[in-house]
Write a structure and sequence with these properties.
With about 220 residues, the chain is α+β, with helices and mostly antiparallel strands. It contains 6 helices and 8 strands. The chain is globular, with a radius of gyration of 16 Å.
């Protein structure tokens, strides 16, 4: 079962200095408890790392389910989760289940900084990503900003790696990571267990290691 989703306008927003943006998460930050560690600070269950949090600790004013054009895959190895991380390839064919959160531009910068293992203390210039759809801030994972368009006049932004899906070895994600990702997507309210489990099991890196039944079992109370 899939409910009707908000439609992302693929055109770029005219405002290059927005006060608020849709931070669009496709990995474990689809789960609000996990996202809270990035915003308020702390260590989420199942993670080995503690996060300092954003300069502004207010939680998103809204969180909605969306789908991005492209593909999600699992690669590299997270020391905190003990398995592959989720990455987004906007150039691949397919669809990505995601959850978009309304945050300030400063909070988006601080969340991105923590994903990059940097201190959350500097605002990001968004002009390049809002003009070219993509801005590479570094060579590491999650150091490439992507704009998928706009929704309700606000840019739809996320971050991923500078490489493509087929440029790196795929790495299976850990059970803790899959549980957070699956629970986050399920709580978005657009997809049922079958849809979420089938989607994750079909993503490169999970295929052959996680079946839809295995993913569903992680969601059992």
């Amino acid at each position: 079962m899939v409910k009707a989703l908000p439609s992302i306008d693929p055109s770029l927003p005219l405002d290059r200095h927005p006060e608020r943006v849709w931070y669009t998460s496709y990995g474990s930050n689809t789960h609000l408890d996990r996202l809270a560690a990035y915003i308020k600070g702390g260590r989420p269950p199942g993670a080995a790392r503690e996060y300092p949090g954003c300069r502004d600790p207010a939680m998103p004013t809204r969180s909605i389910p969306v789908e991005l054009t492209g593909a999600m895959y699992f690669a590299t190895r997270s020391p905190g989760w003990g398995g592959g991380r989720a990455f987004y390839d906007p150039g691949a064919s397919g669809r990505v289940l995601a959850r978009a959160h309304v945050v300030t531009s400063g909070q988006f910068a601080d969340i991105a900084a923590q994903e990059m293992y940097r201190a959350p203390d500097v605002d990001l210039g968004l002009e390049e990503v809002l003009t070219r759809r993509r801005a590479v801030l570094g060579e590491g994972r999650y150091e490439t900003l992507v704009c998928a368009g706009q929704l309700e006049g606000m840019p739809v932004l996320t971050f991923t790696a500078p490489w493509g899906m087929n440029d790196v070895p795929w790495v299976p994600p850990s059970a803790a990571y899959v549980r957070f990702l699956a629970a986050g997507l399920l709580s978005a309210g657009a997809w049922d267990v079958t849809a979420v489990a089938s989607y994750i099991a079909a993503c490169p890196g999970a295929t052959g290691h996680w079946s839809a039944r295995d993913v569903s079992a992680l969601l059992d109370p």
